[in-house]
User: Fold this.
Amino acid sequence: MGPGGPPPLPPHVRDFVSKKTAAGVCGILLGGLGIHKFILGLTSAGVIMLLVSLVGGICTMGISTLVMSVIGLVEGIIYLSKSDEDFYQTYAVEKKQWF
Assistant:
């Protein structure tokens, strides 16, 4: 950035933050499947969402799939609304799994 602007992000931060848009859009569109979690490397949470959506959806006639989809939608919106620095701190440094 030019003089007086914020300093550029370090490469490792830029690499992680570059996943923010993909994770946010996947959370909004495919949230119930947990794809956004896998994009961020949060494998445990992704597997939980996927299993609850698929297996739980069969057992509850789709109710658990609907719940997981709403959670994914909310998380996608949260991802897209965070600043790059907050996103990195929350999901890369603190490894926050949910919301």
User: Anything to note?
Assistant: Helices lie at 11-17, 20-30, 35-39, 43-59, 63-81, 84-93. The CA atoms of residues 32 and 67 lie 8 Å apart. Residues 32-93 form one domain.
